Amino acid sequence: MINRAIPRRTALGSAAALALTACSSPAGTPPPGSPQKPHKVTVGLLPVVECAPLYLGLRQGIFRKHGLDLVPSQFPGGSAIMPAVISGQIHIGFSNVISLLAARERGVPLVSVAGAGTSTGDPVKDINAIIVNDGSGLRSPRDLVDKKVAINAWNNLGDTTVRVAVKRDGGDHWRVQFVRVPFQEMPGKLASGAVDAIWVSEPLRSSSLASGGRLLFNNLTETYPKVQVAQFFTTEQVTQQDNALVAAFRDGLKEATHYASSHTNEVFEILDTYVKVSSSVASAIVLPDWTSDLAEESTQALGDAAHEFRTLWKAPDVAGLLGTR
Predict the structure, then answer these.
(1) Which of 41, 195, 200, 259 has the most Cβ atoms closer than 10 angstroms to its Cβ?
(2) Which residues contact 185 (CB under 8 A, 6 or more apart)?
(3) How many structural domains is the chain composed of?
(4) Range of the structural domain that residue 94 is part of
(5) Where are the alpha helices (DSSP H) in the chain?
């Protein structure tokens, strides 16, 4: 099934309506830094490498030092995190940049507060990849024309960045056949021949390569030299009413990110607490370039690509998402 025939994402439809009518921050939250006890803040996370600094900062007491009692809440997918933030069930969430820009386009008042890691910029060793079977005859992005490529969600980061690569290589990106497959099922679908290629991120990138896969190309470096894939976000209302909370989270995450950058051995240790991988795969995992700063140029590049390939129907609201206007 060719992707352009698939309706655009509707997962945020009800969430958008909720946001416009009942968006609110969690009630009864005193300012952070209280001498009595730290301010409780719940953060919605995914079991991905980019979240490691937050878990590491929690273990090291970094967030408590900044007046926060940080409570991580792990979700199976990003589509469940946004409604939880919008409804006020949790304070801060984690999501990829294109999903956030799509939410802004639909009128959901989300704003990013911190970055969540950046790709390495190395075409061979990066946090995302397009993987094929080792015996595959596919050799370049244009070879994906009329082939089945597994992605975890239509009209999002995976198909957008693959389209960029195929177009740059002279292929007709509209003829790539994107197939929606949960990440954990992708290696099996590839091995069985149900799909011709899979789009995966770490740690599945390393485990897929270790089990007979071959790197076809890096979809991120094809899109922008160093891509900030995901960001931490909240609602505009929270940034206005709980600005001290947001500032404390941003400061704590920045310190935790610096700590992760200089203690990579501890990063691998913390990964084992929320991402279950074998020791052989863990040692091969490519870590992001850690940064909690919001990357405006990268966000713009992803937004422009999403607009070009109809993931976004309007010019991306980068300024609104990053709070720069």
Answers:
(1) 200
(2) none
(3) 2
(4) 3-118+228-322
(5) 13-22, 52-59, 62-65, 78-87, 97-105, 157-168, 186-192, 204-210, 236-241, 243-262, 264-274, 279-282, 296-308, 318-322
Q: Kindly report the CA angle at 192 between 189 and 193, in degrees rounded to 5?
A: 85
Q: Give the three-state DSSP class for 197.
A: strand
Out of 184, 217, 250, a domain closes at 217
Helix axes 243-262, 264-274, angle to 10 degrees: 120
Q: How many residues does this entry show for the chain?
A: 325
User: Is residue 223 in a domain?
Assistant: no
- Do 24 and 161 belong together in one domain? no
Three-class secondary structure of residue 28 per DSSP: coil
Q: How confident is the model at residue 32 (pLDDT cuts 50, 70, 90)?
A: low
**Position 222 in a domain:** no
- Mean pLDDT within 239-253: 94
User: In whole angstroms, how far apart are CA 142 and each of 29, 164, 292?
Assistant: 53, 10, 34
Pairing of strands 197-201, 177-180: unpaired
Looking at the structure, do residues 142 and 107 belong to the same domain, yes or no? Answer: no
Q: CB of 238 within 8 A of CB of 91?
A: yes
- Is the distance from CB of 169 to CB of 223 less than 8 angstroms? no
pLDDT in tens, 275-318: 877 777 777 899 999 899 999 999 999 999 999 999 999 999 99
Residue 113 placed within a domain:
yes
Task: Tell me: do 145 and 192 sit in the same domain.
Answer: yes
Q: What pLDDT is stored for residue 5 in this prediction?
A: 38
Residue 246 lies in a domain: yes
From 168, 189, 217, the end of a domain falls on: 217
What pTM did the predictor assign? 0.87
Query: Would you state the pLDDT for residue 279?
Result: 73
Instruction: Kindly state whether residues 272 and 299 are assigned to the same domain.
Output: yes
Residue with tokens 């109809």: 310
